[in-house]
Write a structure and sequence with these properties.
Layout: E1 2-5, H1 16-21, E2 24-28, H2 32-42, E3 48-52, H3 55-64, E4 69-72, H4 81-90, E5 96-101, H5 106-114, E6 119-122, H6 127-157, E7 171-176, E8 181-184, H7 186-192, H8 196-199, H9 213-220, E9 233-237, E10 247-254, E11 264-267, E12 272-275, E13 277-284, H10 286-300, H11 310-327, E14 331-338, H12 341-348, H13 350-366, E15 373-378, E16 381-386, H14 392-407, E17 410-412, E18 415-417, E19 421-428, H15 435-451, E20 456-459, H16 462-483, E21 487-496, E22 501-513, E23 517-520, H17 525-530, H18 534-554, E24 561-565, H19 568-573, H20 576-587, E25 594-599, H21 602-605, H22 607-620, E26 623-629, H23 638-641, E27 646-649, H24 651-654, H25 665-677, E28 680-684, H26 689-697, E29 702-704, H27 714-733
Parallel strand pairs: 2-3, 2-4, 4-5, 5-6, 19-20, 22-24, 24-25, 25-26, 26-27, 27-28, 28-29
Antiparallel strand pairs: 1-3, 7-8, 7-13, 9-10, 10-13, 11-12, 14-16, 14-19, 15-16, 17-18, 21-22, 21-29, 22-23
């Protein structure tokens, strides 16, 4: 650590008092040569100078001494200059900072300025630049300290109100008793574009916007002297600058008593103080007003599409209902939901999904009539209010127009895709007389359209409410099914057609519904996916699968691999691996006996998360299969990154095989991919001998389907395995 004190001119020693009053500067730089040169340069001035080559030394000096100015290098041996600036800020150290640095980028410079640096000098700096910047900083500091002293004196004396003069960021003015300017500061001239001579002696009305003159009359003629004086009155003032906008000012006017600044004079004849003028301070709040307008706009509009949001839509629908009631006229509410939008997000990503929503909003907006309101409700849902509706046929025609405008392909930077929409319509007053009723019933009608194939529109009918209630009942009964043990696991064997032996099985869920009987997974799992029930159902399925394997192993059966289908929601939660490990440990099951089946689309929802989760499962010993391969939208490059053991050919491709001598290139391609990557291969949905012969002839030797076995209960599955084991000796003898 070096301390240096600049000397006075030769032969002119300075006293201790004078020395202590000199500005104290801290030089912080890790390069001794640069430190010495700056020290020598500043040493020519009457400054107290302290130097530090490390951040710790600088912090120690800042803790024990008061500094007016810190010249700081950002790159120090032990810490960054940003940390020193944070130290200064956190401890409220009253010191200005000039950053001198050469090896940092723009982000570091911006970071320093954001931390309150007075200036940023890039090395190498000229002598004049350093001296000028230091001098300006100290001069600014002296001015600030002087202003603080003056302000303190004004407060303590209580004879003058605090107001800023020409250097103030606010307009300061005084008026005579006729409302003519007697003083304006420089800030008024800068903001409004008038020279001082153009305003002095002129009436205040030359500046005030015409619409605000009446309000300004009370403010600019304020005579009161206490709390009743005008406060925070907003006025718009005219600007003379070419191309400038009107500016909005928050104006405070107070009348000054004799003890303040003498704006009253004694009238001896009447024995009282006579008013002769006012003064005021006006702050430019134009930027704040614009910001408030933006905030207000964003509070009622969707940022992505710039459409009204749910809040504004409900407000406008409420007004439309009031008008419709007054005129005894119908209106319609449309609820629009894009079909298969989730697939776009999953395949192309959310950025492309957002672009699609913007283009859809633009097309729908072009189909509106004057007075209609289109709003985005959230996600891929839009709502429209159609006031002054002639009849239902008019609403149907408008809905047809919306469907037609969506039929043309959308271009998302080279990706062309088609989307359709499902539109539900509710009409006032038949389908509801309140905002919530109409929206709810239009929503129900929209879901009814989806259930009938999508890409269409439909009007609400009271019978749809029963269907909606049935869905709620289905959700409640599905939740109860878990509690009341109504779910069962069935197993569809997988057969090695060379040996004829069962090598594994896929676990398939069934719901033994009290009223509807045995339901296949396809009848209730999609509903479970949409209603947040897949996680508890998957937990149940994992427990049952491990329990059944435990029973099979205890009965002395051969090692058998059972597979279960894994919902994307399970991987998204990130805790499936822990649940799998706990279930295997609880039932003493070897991980190699479990295989999880995922769809291709899991690979593209969040690839990195999926890879991490599946890698953990593979490290545990659990194998992974891609189910329904070839029907998804993932890139084949993911097969190299994912720890896949098995590919399952989807039954839609197998179903196409009608001739064992035919040519089915998709199946051949999938078989080639599996062979090239060294993966196991299973064909699903094999139902005919021709399909089996074609698959076997082309290299797929493990099959699953009705040709061999239907899904069966655990007891029946054990029977199949036992018969399979009994047939093996006979086959060997043959």
């Amino acid at each position: 650590m070096k301390h240096a004190l600049s000397a006075a001119a030769p032969g002119q020693p300075i006293s201790l008092f004078e020395r202590e009053s000199l500005p104290r500067i801290l030089l912080v730089d890790g390069e001794p040569s640069l430190l010495s040169s700056v020290l020598a340069l500043l040493g020519q001035k009457n400054y107290q100078i302290v130097t530090a080559t490390r951040g710790e030394q600088a912090l120690a000096e800042l803790s024990k001494l008061h500094f007016d100015l810190v010249l700081l290098e950002l790159e120090l041996p032990d810490m960054s200059g940003h940390q020193i600036m944070d130290f200064i800020s956190e401890r409220w150290i009253d010191a200005d900072v000039i950053v001198m640095s050469g090896g940092v980028g723009i982000d570091a410079a911006i970071g320093a300025l954001r931390r309150g640096a007075y200036d940023f000098l890039r090395k190498p700096c000229s002598r004049e630049q350093i001296l000028r910047t230091v001098g300006n900083a100290l001069q600014k500091r002296r001015l600030a300290q002087a202003n603080a002293r003056i302000a303190s004196q004004l407060e303590k004396s209580e004879k003058l109100y605090r107001y800023l003069v020409d250097s103030s960021p606010d307009i300061i003015y005084t008026l005579n008793n006729e409302g003519r300017f007697t003083f304006v500061n420089d800030r008024a001239c800068q903001l409004l574009g008038f020279a001082r001579g153009e305003l002095l002696g002129k009436h205040y009305s030359i500046l005030v916007h015409e619409a605000d003159l009446e309000r300004a009359r009370y403010v600019f003629n304020e005579r009161r002297v206490d709390e009743r004086a005008s406060r925070n009155v907003e006025l718009r003032l005219k600007c003379q600058q070419e191309g400038a906008d009107e500016r909005t000012f928050n104006t405070t006017l107070v009348t000054i008593s004799l003890n303040a600044i003498g704006m009253h004079v004694p009238d001896h004849a009447l024995n009282k103080l006579a008013f002769f003028g006012t003064y005021g301070v006006a702050r430019d709040i134009s930027e704040r007003k614009r910001a408030e307008e933006v905030i207000s706009y964003q509070a009622y509009h969707d940022i992505l599409t710039d459409l009204p949001n749910r809040v504004l839509f409900k407000d406008r629908l409420g007004l439309a209902i009031i008008q419709a009631k007054r005129r005894a006229a119908p209106l319609a509410v449309m609820f629009i939901n894009l079909d298969r939008f989730k697939l776009v997000n999953d395949t192309l990503g959310h950025v492309k999904g957002d672009e699609l929503l913007q283009q859809v909003a633009l097309r729908l907006r072009h189909g509106l009539r004057q007075g209609d309101t289109l709003a985005r409700q959230g996600g891929d849902e839009f709502a429209i209010v159609l006031p002054e509706l002639a009849d239902r046929a008019a609403a149907r025609s408008i809905a047809d127009g919306f469907l037609a405008c969506l039929q043309q392909p959308f271009d998302l930077e080279g990706h062309q895709l088609h989307v359709s929409a499902s539109i539900g319509i509710a009409v006032y007053p038949e389908d509801g007389e309140s905002v919530d009723e109409l929206l709810h019933h239009a929503d129900i009608a929209m879901y009814q359209v989806k259930s009938f194939g999508k890409n269409g529109h439909g009007f609400y009918h009271s019978s749809m409410l029963d269907v909606s209630h049935q869905k709620i009942a289905l959700e409640q009964s599905l939740r109860k099914a878990l509690e009341q043990n109504e779910l069962e696991m069935y197993y569809q064997p997988q057969v090695d057609i060379v040996t004829g032996r069962v090598t594994g099985a896929e676990g398939l869920m069934r719901w033994n519904h009290p009223q509807r009987g045995m339901l296949a997974a396809g009848e209730f799992l999609p509903f479970a996916e949409d209603n947040g029930l897949m996680l508890p159902i998957t937990d149940w399925m994992l427990g049952v699968l491990c329990r059944d394997l435990q029973r099979w192993n205890a009965a002395g059966g051969e090692a058998m691999r059972l597979s279960l289908n894994l919902s994307p929601q399970c991987l998204d939660r990130g805790d499936f691996f822990e649940k799998m490990r706990a279930a295997l440990a609880l039932h003493a099951i070897a991980p190699a006996q479990i295989e999880v089946e995922i769809t291709e689309n899991i690979c593209i929802r969040n690839p990195q998360v999926a890879i991490e989760q599946l890698n953990k499962l593979c490290q545990l010993g659990v194998s992974v299969a891609i189910d329904d391969f070839g029907t998804g939208y993932s890139s084949l490059s993911y097969l190299h990154r994912f720890p896949i053991n098995t590919i399952k050919i989807d039954q839609s491709f197998v179903r196409e095989v009608s001739d064992s001598e035919g040519h089915y290139p998709v199946i051949l391609a999938i078989i080639s991919i599996a062979r090239g990557l060294g993966l196991n291969l299973i064909a699903e949905g094999v139902e005919t001998e021709a399909q089996a012969r074609y698959l076997e002839a082309n290299g797929c030797l493990t099959m699953q389907g009705y040709l061999y076995h239907h899904p069966v209960s655990l007891a029946e599955f054990i029977g199949v395995i036992e018969r399979d084991a009994g047939a093996a000796p006979a086959a060997a003898r043959a």
